[in-house]
From TrEMBL:
Residues given in the record as glyoxylate binding sites: 31, 136, 171, 283, 286
Domain called FMN hydroxy acid dehydrogenase: residue spans: 5-388
Organism name: Sphingomonas kaistensis
The name this protein goes by in its record: L-lactate dehydrogenase (Cytochrome)
Stretch forming the signal peptide: none
GO MF, one example: L-lactate dehydrogenase (cytochrome) activity
């Protein structure tokens, strides 16, 4: 069966994950799929959604359902955002542009990672929809300021500052698989790649592993001993504080979300430091294992911030009904990483399209079954934590 045929038989994100697993060399699949340490947070991010029940209304006329929302000041067709993911070309040659094209078709906001494999100017030229650049405050503040200027010139609508990576998370699957970035060509990795011919040829040419947005820095260092990966690794700054957020907010002057915080206190600090929103996130369970599931923190963060700021629930979403639960708890929107990456790996742009279609259909069906015809009418009473039974 061809790839399109296989995609049309996919019923949910879990099916797409299985397709991606078949298509990718194991070390590459595990790089997407895995989390830190014992992967407790990775599992909890999703299973926590099952700990909320949806309490429906009936007879509310759900012949038409309003799903439009505003995110980073931009209109979106429904409140889902594509989270930033690095090294996207490693999963499919279509890379970021394939993902962004699918996002545009679905009227969604796309976010490009600093560690992406497409230049932000090329992404902006190809993608007319709402777009956010995921930024880090690097040791070289000049490089961060340069990103801000490039994002302004290219017409990005917002920035998401990732703050949960003072050091790299401990991803043990990558160690067991001997994954290095870029992958080293050993006999073992060659055999693993060669068994996946659709994936491996560009990989063997090395073209999947370019941090396109920072490669000029390494050109500038050409002749020195540093590789691009070493250069980036050396740029993460453990000394960052909220003062640095104030600096970035002033430098940018537009919508800014802090990505990777967990508590109402930090959410308040984010807004006081000049951010316009927060992404409640533990980096998809890839950084601090044992961190709470984002969905469990959403209500407290919303209560702390009041109605104005964007509160984005990031991580663990595998069903459209998960988005409904997060919204009822107070989120403005949700964001997804792995669901669209599984789709990309399984079938390129058509695979991303399938992932987004499935989530959208599930989202609308859940709203109809919950008797909610406008997401603005979703309230906390529509969800409740599972009752513990005697
Ligand atoms: C990520 N994530 C991420 N976050 C970020 O701020 N910058 C980045 O470069 C990356 N790269 C990245 C690569 C891969 C392969 C994954 C799976 C994730 C985290 C991402 O933005 C998001 O927080 C999580 O993916 C959300 O969890 P789910 O949706 O994957 O469960």
């Amino acid at each position: 069966m061809g790839r399109t045929g296989r995609l049309s038989r996919v019923n949910n994100i879990a099916d797409l994950r299985m397709l991606a697993r078949r298509r990718l060399p194991r070390p590459i699949f595990d790089y997407i799929d895995g989390g830190a340490d014992d992967e407790v947070s990775l599992a909890r991010n999703s299973s926590a959604f099952a700990d909320y029940e949806i309490v429906p209304d009936v007879l509310t006329d759900v012949s038409r359902i309003e799903t439009g929302a505003t995110l980073f000041g931009e209109a979106v067709d429904w409140p889902l955002m594509l989270a930033p993911t690095g090294l996207t070309r490693m999963f499919h040659d279509g890379a970021e542009l394939a993902v962004a094209r699918a996002a545009a078709r679905h009227g969604l906001l796309y976010s490009l990672s600093t560690l992406g494999t497409t230049r932000l100017e090329d992404l902006a030229a190809a993608f007319g929809g709402p777009k956010v650049f995921q930024i880090y405050i690097f040791k070289d503040r000049g490089l961060t300021a340069e990103f801000v200027a490039r994002c302004k010139a290219a017409g990005f609508h917002g920035l998401a500052l990732t703050v949960d990576t003072p050091v790299a998370g401990n991803r043990e699957r990558d160690r067991v698989n001997g994954l290095s970035l870029p992958p080293r060509l050993t006999l073992k990795s060659f055999l693993s790649f060669a068994a996946h011919p659709g994936w491996s040829l560009p990989a063997l040419r090395g073209s999947k592993f370019d941090f396109a947005n920072v490669s000029h820095k390494v050109d500038a260092l050409a002749g020195g001993p540093m590789s691009l990966f070493d250069y980036i690794g050396g740029q993460f700054d453990r000394s960052l504080t909220w003062k640095d957020v104030e600096w970035l907010a002033a430098e940018w002057g537009g919508p800014l979300a802090i990505k990777g915080l967990m508590t109402p206190e930090d959410a308040r600090r984010a807004i006081a430091s000049g951010a316009s929103g927060v992404m409640v996130s533990n980096h998809g369970g890839r950084q601090l294992d044992g961190a709470p599931a984002p969905v469990d923190q959403v209500a407290a963060v919303r209560d702390a911030l009041g109605d104005g700021p964007d509160v984005i629930c990031d991580g663990g979403i595998r069903r459209g009904s998960d988005v409904v639960k997060a919204l009822a708890l107070g989120a403005t929107a949700c964001s997804v990483g792995r669901p669209y990456l599984y789709g990309l790996a399984a079938g390129g742009e058509a695979g991303v399209d399938r992932a987004l279609t499935l989530l959208r259909e599930e989202f609308e069906r859940t709203l109809a079954l919950a008797g909610v015809n406008d997401i603005a009418r979703l309230e906390r009473r529509h969800v409740r934590p599972l009752l513990s039974r005697p």
